[in-house]
Amino acid sequence: CPTVRSLKNMPNNQTNCVNMPCQTVLADMESFNTWHKGRTRYCVWMYRLDEEDMRQSLAHLAATINTTLGTAPIHNFHVTVFASGFLSSATRYNDDITPATIGRQINAIKALPHTRPRLVMTGLEANAYGIFITLEDQSATTDQIRHALASVQGEVPRDSFMPHITLGSYV
Of the candidates 93, 95, 74, 91, which has an alpha carbon nearest to the alpha carbon of residue 83? Predict the structure, then answer.
């Protein structure tokens, strides 16, 4: 399990300021269905946030943001480490992953030294999709895991990777 510095320890200037996006993206079910192509299971590697104090603090912050900005709250807080793609028995699309490939990814991670990530909350930000807490891994463990996973199969294309905890998405 990762170590995440408590919300109470975030610098005041970072908890009071949110960089708001210049636009938001509303959910479009047609685009969602087109992207899914009938596939139902999307695989990501993540750190679960299981500490009860942390989950309660995140839930309180997410509820406040939801009330203020009208975002949809997130109920299972986590840090996405790597997006593998849609689970499929055979690769048909560039965002498919097979169980055999996931098995090789598991083996790649098992070969790494067992170092806990040290995630530090660095700010509260927003983009066109939602509001999130930015994180920094001071141990480089997340980068090592991402490299091991990508050595088996590349990540589903995305703009860029930044460790974060999503608090709410625009609906």
Answer: 95
